[in-house]
Amino acid sequence: MSAGGGKKAILAALSANAGIAAAKFVGAAITGSASMLAEAVHSVADTSNQGLLLLGQRRAEQEADQLHPFGYGRNRYFYSFVVALVIFALGSLYAIWEGIHKIQHPEELSNPIVAIVILGLAILLEGYSFTTAMRESAPLKGNASWWRFIRNSRNPELPVVLLEDSGALIGLVIAFAAIGLTMITGDPVWDGVGTLAIGILLGVIAVILIIEMQSLLIGEGATPEEDRKIRTALVDGRRIDRVIHLRTQYLGPDEMLVAAKAAIVPGLEIAEIAAAIDEAEARIRAEVPAARVIYIEPDLYRTQPARESAVGETNHKPQS
Prior knowledge:
mainly alpha, 10 helices
């Protein structure tokens, strides 16, 4: 997935969240609703997060240099990890603190109908952002479930936007219900309960993102499907007989490092071996376009050392 597709979803989320944040702050000032204020802070955090994701994409475009010979692609993972921390610190912890405070010291709402109108508008805008993210993610998701896509995608921005937007929609429904219950029952404690629920929701989303982005930041290998394609493309059955071992790692969402030791048929000349390796690289890139950096070591097949067996044949993300 190129940065362009993710960028469209990020820009849609950025524009929606900026407008929503302004509207929510106005609503919170008019009504005094804690859940509305928590949602406003949530939208500010989301807007800041979209800016961080765009910054990560810009930094990732830097050319490789002597200090970073494999480039700066992992900037996208780093800034997505920062986004997860922002959601947790600025969104979740604040909402939980505000919710507990409002439960202990409930305050009457003024003009709650204003909050209802603003929340309804926010749901429409967040729905637009969410559907944009889903549409941009669909080609990558394929037939997998959305949860599996979030768990296994090497593109960090789209899972972040999907989880942010889904969390925002659920949070808006919670805030809507909290203010509605406050209006029906006349008990403002429901506003604090809704705020606390929003904080817990944001905390769960933040923890999921922190786990996923930390794994990407450390370095994940090819997916099982990509691993299979690379192994199949590497062997031609004439000069390259089999794969002795294979290691892969994503240097960024669109760039994979492939390192393999391949068994060469005995008796080939050096020129034939070089041609076989060049052709194998071309086949791999045709099957897995992300495999841009490829190192193939020719060797005669031997029984794998115990160390190789212990490490395992593949280096990919566990499936959920």
